[in-house]
Amino acid sequence: EELARFAMQHVIDDGAVAAVVLAARTHKRSPALLLSSLDALCNMADDQDALSTMVTEGATACVMDVLSNVSETSAELIQSSEVELLQRALQLLAVLTECRAAVPMLTTIAGTRSLLTTMAIHSGIISGGAHAHFSEDTMELLLCAAVALENAAFDPQGVQELQEAIVAVTVSGSSNEGSC
What we know:
Elements: H1 2-13, H2 16-26, H3 31-44, H4 48-57, H5 59-71, H6 75-96, H7 103-106, H8 109-123, H9 136-153, H10 156-175
């Protein structure tokens, strides 16, 4: 385990974080490459320096793009082909929001809308299903999303912005059928 930690630190020190974030941002429309990039970032996210680099290099924006694209997709498509990508994006978002610099991306109206829509789709609210039983995948998705929201709520400015964004999403969603 120490050898693995040493190897990971060497990879991080050699600039892997910036390279992986760049690959993810450059190839947003390639689900396989995006998933591999998000996997790699999740594996490096335990390192605080790597986490800070992820945020400054734009990993939060990349994750929010994934959520935005998925929240615009039909629930059937999400359930079949994009669940793993969505899981990885939400896992990374939960970790990224531990870094206060990542919180503003989540607390924008668009960011909050994407996250809440994703949560709604997977809880069955939008797809019309009242799920009596959630799958493990669904529970993990919802838990990661909740952790990201909780992390944002620990920041006094973040909680205010999050409240405003939730109100804006709720108000606009009440006039748009199929939205949160």
